Amino acid sequence: MKTDQQPLVTTARQLMAGKKGILAMDESTATCNKRFKAQGIPETEEYRRKYRELLVTTHGLEEYINGAILFDETIKQSTVAGDLFIDILVKKGIIPGIKVDAGTVSMAGFMGEKVTEGLDGLRERLAAYKKLGARFAKWRAVFSIGTNTPTVTCIKTNANVLAQYAALCQETGLVPFVEPEVLMDGGHSIEKCAEVTNQVLQAVFNALHRHRVNLEGIILKPNMVLPGIDHPIQNNNDEIARATIACLLNCVPASVPGIAFLSGGQPTLLATERLNAMHRLFNASLPWALTFSFSRALQQPALEIWKGNDANINAAQQSLLHRAACNHAACMGSYTPEMEKVIPNLIY
User: Fold this and answer.
1) Radius of gyration (Cα) for the chain, nearest Å?
2) Structural domain boundaries of the chain?
3) What is the pLDDT of residues 168-196, one digit of tens each?
4) Residues of 115-133 as b/e, b for ≥16 C-beta within 10 angstroms?
5) Is the pTM of this model over 0.70?
6) Catalytic residue at 179?
7) Cα–Cα distance between 176 and 170 in angstroms, integer?
């Protein structure tokens, strides 16, 4: 049964409004624990809760952030005072969303390639998350560039799964974030990344069309077009901006309301600088809103300051707010390196 599409379109536009971004705080338990271990933070549910409380209670975050992607554990968690995180976000005017894929597994018969699981029971899970207050969802597919990868089979399989997920989201009344990530691991050139990203995005939008997904009610969450981290030539920010925008203009219909980049392991400052370059060079000619949906590139500095110590919460929140403000400026093409010298003061 087809749901009323207007609320989806409205939510998608709200998520992309005002040059604000999306906070990706949807790390799985394993990923969160891995980052905690590197900082000497206890790998427990209570410390994950404390960290997420730090994020959602940051004063002024709503000035730069429109939405927050939560994890199954997070959407049910509360502050030490008993306030649900999702209620705090809604009160701030930040739209809550939820990661719903079950992670990637090896693709049978295709060495080194992955397929994302989680379609089984998804309709019921989406309905439950919507009842909890989620208004959008996220599903990630990954593609590795190698000598013989990604294969056409891998691309089409993941594109089809992404489209099935998106259709189920819209049926439930949730805006789907469609996240096909071409990984930056490896020694490939920026030209190779552009070629593969074009193939992936074309396959994804073909699949979305076949599954009758309303493109006005989705958000695309792609990678930037980058050289592999091991490639000897690391292109400058303007070259990366031009390659990325050329790819998106070639593949993404104008009916899509917005594109929110993942950071994909890019260094914090480079992710901001590259987003800024895209807006500085192309802002007036883009048919869709272009913003950020970063995880590590927003949170890592705050995590390194916090280190699990309550005495560091205020400083960590200032760092998070600062990175959000810098990326908000990048969405206007007005970010400058001088902004890194000014950390905003939080007022309580």
Assistant:
1) 19
2) 6-341
3) 999 999 999 999 999 999 999 999 999 99
4) bbebeeebeebbeebbeeb
5) yes
6) yes
7) 7
Residue pLDDT, tens place only, 124-144: 999 999 999 999 999 999 999
Considering 27, 53, 113, 179, which one is annotated as catalytic?
179
Residue type present at position 145: I
Q: Annotated catalytic, 221? A: yes
Pick the CATH number of 6-341 from 3.90.660.10, 3.40.50.720, 3.20.20.70, 2.30.30.140: 3.20.20.70
Query: Which tokens go with 264?
Result: 């994909």
User: Using CA atoms, how far apart are residues 282 and 262, in angstroms rounded to an integer?
Assistant: 19
Residue count of the chain: 348
Say which of 50, 92, 114, 221 is annotated catalytic: 221
- Four-point Cα dihedral 329, 286, 238, 297, nearest 10: 40
Query: Which bin fits 19, alpha (ψ -120 to 50), beta or left (φ > 0)?
Result: left
